[in-house]
Design brief:
Rossmann fold; 16% strand; 10 helices; alpha/beta
């Protein structure tokens, strides 16, 4: 397994006011988190102080799809699984970058699945990352972006094992992490759904413990 960064190009493009988010008197952090963890309208398309503030397709994921396709040599006919697919925007961009790929996605959010991009809507379903409804080694590429850190430990363990189980070739995940006390504070201030707060070393322990052998990268709140 290797550290491969596909996400900084998107993550670092956003400016974040950590103190403003945690100190907002009209939307206290606890209230925002409670609303976000319902995984409904508020999380995806509601107030920006809760989460995305309107998650609409704008093509931003195309560069990530291309980078992953180039790195892993994805080709027409390959089967791809997105664990935590949301509205399926990255899935759709894969079909544009590599015409002929077969994309599938799962997400815990019924709202996201109901509002998935029309072109891939028949390939997504509501499902827990801890119990994937697919056969062993049934995908050429399995990835999960900014999802697994939202799981409690009792869900994270099986979710990592499931990614390993259903993949037959390439695997990749990206999760939130922190290296310093400053980054830890910023993560605590900004996040609304994270449950697994781990340093890179702790994530490495999880990978070894669960037998996850794919690639990975981390999101830091610097």
């Amino acid at each position: 397994m290797a550290y491969v960064d596909f996400l900084s190009v998107i993550h670092k493009a956003t400016t974040r006011d950590y103190l403003a988010r945690v100190n907002d008197p009209e939307m206290p952090k606890a209230k925002a988190a409670k609303l976000a963890k319902q995984w409904g309208f508020d999380y995806w398309d509601g107030d920006r102080r809760i989460n995305y503030g309107g998650y609409r397709y704008d093509g931003r994921w195309a560069k990530v799809a291309k980078a992953m396709a180039d790195h892993y040599g994805i080709k027409a006919g390959d089967r791809i699984l997105d664990v935590g697919c949301g509205k399926g925007f990255l899935m759709y961009d894969f079909t544009q970058v590599v015409p002929g790929v077969e994309v599938f996605g799962i997400d815990i959010s019924q709202y996201a699945i109901d509002n998935a991009k029309d072109e891939i809507k028949d390939r997504v379903q509501v499902c827990s990352a801890a119990t994937l409804p697919f056969e062993d080694a049934s995908f050429d590429f399995v990835y999960s972006i900014n999802t697994l850190h939202n799981l409690h430990n009792y869900q994270l363990d099986p979710a990592l094992r499931e990614m390993q189980r259903v993949g037959r070739k390439h695997r990749y995940l990206c999760v939130e992490s922190y290296r310093t006390e400053e980054e830890k504070a910023n993560l605590l201030y900004w996040q609304v759904t994270c449950e697994a707060f781990n340093t890179p070393e702790a994530w490495e322990w999880w990978f070894k413990t669960t037998g996850y052998q794919g690639d990975h990268s981390f999101i830091y709140f610097e």
